[in-house]
Amino acid sequence: MKQLFLFLLLAFSTTLFAQRFTLEGQVKDPDAISLEGATVYVQSLKDSITMAYGITNKTGQFSININAEEETKLLFNVAYLGYQPYSKDIDVPTENKFNMGTVTLSDQIEELDVVSIIGKAPPIVIKKDTIEYNADSFKTLANDRAEDLLKKLPGVEFDIDGNITVNGVEVEAINVDGMEFFGEKMGDIALKNLPSNVISKVQVTDYKTNLQKFTGEESDSGTKEINIKIKKGKNTAFFGDLNGGVGTDDKYQANATYSK
């Protein structure tokens, strides 16, 4: 009986260990030149949920940690401006590391239809100091709010007190369409009330003071800020409903009008 228990424990531990692995590789162009800044991401084959992502370094290399959970197959993707998107099914390895080798991207062909070149927008795009999440790439429920969406984004974490970090860096401000929502720096009303299905993108950048934004100075805060972009045509109806639901405080009334 004891031997059986040890066997089952070992098998269970091995399964859990196999679910977590590191995916490595290198991205190059057709001329074998390494591509820096390519977005690499892995999705579930069952529901296309993004499970992990990363960005290639100066030598085109990437390394991302993946928790495959109950998945046996995953979809590996690479996106880079000016090149055709790359996708490949991969089996979840039994080892804790899997190397994709060299991934060669093909040039975009200008004669082709734009839709067939670009295809579906990648769930995550990293450009310079900005991480941009495509909201429609992350599965949410009908009644989910902005906070529920953010909790599904890779790299975004909420602690027990509601503080937010992105890849371990503190978030100092949350805006909606580039502005404070109802005068709140951390956007609590937006997070609790904004329906997830009206959100187009979630952008993460280095936090800047209003003066730094005005003068174009670089950020020196060491923290991040989140900007929630609303889908076209969705802002007017939502803000009208919210304006009637949160009361008649002058501050709320004044700030609700900017989006109409």
From TrEMBL:
Gene3D superfamilies in alphabetical order: Carboxypeptidase-like, regulatory domain
Annotated InterPro entries: CarboxyPept-like_regulatory
One Pfam assignment: CarbopepD_reg_2
Residue ranges crossing the lipid bilayer per the database entry: none
Keyword Signal: yes
Xref: SUPFAM superfamilies: Carboxypeptidase regulatory domain-like (SSF49464), Porins (SSF56935)
Keywords: Signal
Leader sequence segment: 1-18
Protein name: TonB-dependent receptor
